[in-house]
User: Fold HTH-type transcriptional regulator from Phaeobacter piscinae.
Amino acid sequence: MKLNLKTDYALRLLILLATRPDQQFEIETLSRMHQLPASSVMKIISELVRHGYVHSIRGRSGGVQIGRKPSEIRVGDVVQAMNEPMEIVDCSSCLLVGNCRLKGVLCEAAQAFTDVLMTYHLSDLIAAPAPVLTPLLDGGDGADPTPQA
Assistant:
């Protein structure tokens, strides 16, 4: 299974916001960090705000920050909230539609995928931040700060 880009970036944005729960981020900053158009980030953030995963502060010193405790945000719920289609195949034009059992097997696989995602919380994804994330959070360029021998 492969997540669509909207869902992928929604999870990435949530991971970033969860690593700095007391910090507010401007859309432009998130856009630069993720190398996405600001309009795309804004659409994703708007949907995350609508579902309560992100809190938006308007005004001159505004921004966005995580809206719930990471331990309260299930990965599977975020995937579903972003309207991730879980149908693996489209059987509508297949000649075998009446006699095929493949769709049932694939639906079972998709359900297993969803069930696994429901067992993980955002807190599980930020327990030990990835080394590449730390420089980004500190305002660096994302390069590995470890000196090379």
Q: What stands out?
A: Residues 141-149 have pLDDT under 50 and may be disordered. The first helix runs from residue 5 to 19. The helical segments are 5-19, 27-34, 38-50, 75-81, 102-118, 122-125, 133-137.
